[in-house]
């Protein structure tokens, strides 16, 4: 298994390198002057030239790329032109909001999606299955930011149970978690709908296998057969979706964080795009890409741990 992990690590590094080249080419090699875009068309030529020197745009492209990559390894991603602070510090600060938000949303999505999916698979074509199907259709059809608006109208404007937005910081953990709960639910509901369908299909596919009939013939209870044998052997596609969903929750927080006015990394990306801060946009895009690749790497290793047949095949 260790040898397989190292081979996967090699492909992970290669993919990250290719993605970094694409991001750099998109941001730095396309036509247009980044300093002029940042300062606007009314900026004086000497002001543009000074900013070009500050951002390193007066150097050749390969030197700028190597400087950026070397800085990424040492934690020096440059300084934001609009915020005037190091980009690495900006991302680390905003992750204190986005990462807990994504983790809470993932827990909610897994609890709802796996629970409803298993319930639907245990009673196919019955009332629980039909209810899960309706939930999945609604959850997939309605975007997460619209769920956020509905939650604000219900729990903030009407019931006054939660604040409509903002983040108080982690000095008060209870207030911080409470501020993240509504946006986490808004993020989780569409992902829970997808996970419900995947779980239902995966468990139903396993339910026709010979080992399920053997377990029933041994006299095991229906609950034990379902959770110990069916769900356990259906975990590979479920884990695949969960891994992808964590990446979606991080990247998809852009709209939800703006709806709830949360100072997360999604809002940072939105504000940097509005302010034309290409240094921050490049680093945030690389962070999102690296996170997706890292999660896929972890999912590949989870396959090998969950299914011994895959280890034997490799």
From TrEMBL:
Gene3D superfamilies given in the database record: MetI-like
Family annotation (CDD domains): TM_PBP2
Pfam family, one: BPD_transp_1
MF (Gene Ontology): dipeptide transmembrane transporter activity
Keyword Cell membrane: yes
Location of this chain's protein in the cell: Cell membrane
Full protein name: Peptide ABC transporter
